[in-house]
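Bumping with the actual sequence this time:
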Amino acid sequence: MKFTRFTVNAEVYAGVIADGTIREIKGDIFGDWEYTGKTFPKGEVKLLAPLEPNQIIGIGANYVSKVEDLPDEFPKIPVFFFKPTSSVIGPEEEIVIPRGIDQVKFESELAIVIGKEAKNVPESEALDYVFGYTIGNDVTAPQYFHQDGHWTIGKAFDTFTPLGPVIETELNPFNVNVTATLNGVEKQNSPTELMIIPIHKMISYLTNVMTLKPGDVILTGSPVGAEFVGAGDVIECEIKEIGTLRNTFVAAKESAKIF
């Protein structure tokens, strides 16, 4: 099933998309929900990020360029980071490049949506705690990275986490390609088998550190090929089984100075 959030006449709805039609639902998508009987043509609504995340966790440098480059041993302490929920936007919304810099990086990613509380989960059971998958763009301003390795500011600006267009609940995450097209030119295209830390290991590791809860989003890393982009550039992050997440980069308007 493909779950989504959308607006019609400034009112926010939730629904399930099938064959170009959205059937409105009410209730908790992670618990009890039901159809309302109301439908909308997909072409007549504005899609939003398909959920309002509880928290967003990303992993750094998680792809190699070919299978032969996969390490024999997994890192003992993978590089994880948090992104604020205030950075989330949906399809077709503008990604704002902060004042003081001309370019940022796009990073197309498969995003995991956790569906139930998870703590100390073994790798063999990790996927049992997944509700579904969406597409994320982990937009990054490396100019704001600290020399000692702190990434938070460079990934935390408003609009820096586009998500969408839907949450797909029927997906084999080990058999999809993560792609990105910049102004019509393909820049990223990698199968998820090129992840250094596979999804089940990622979830298990995190649950041994923290309790994951319904609505948590895990960005699983970006394939090789991410580039710097500027105002006016259009990025399309795609996983065919989920859809296309399209956004345009714009320059920031006058605002408070960032120190």
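The tokens above came from a reply further down the thread. The longest helix spans residues 199-207.
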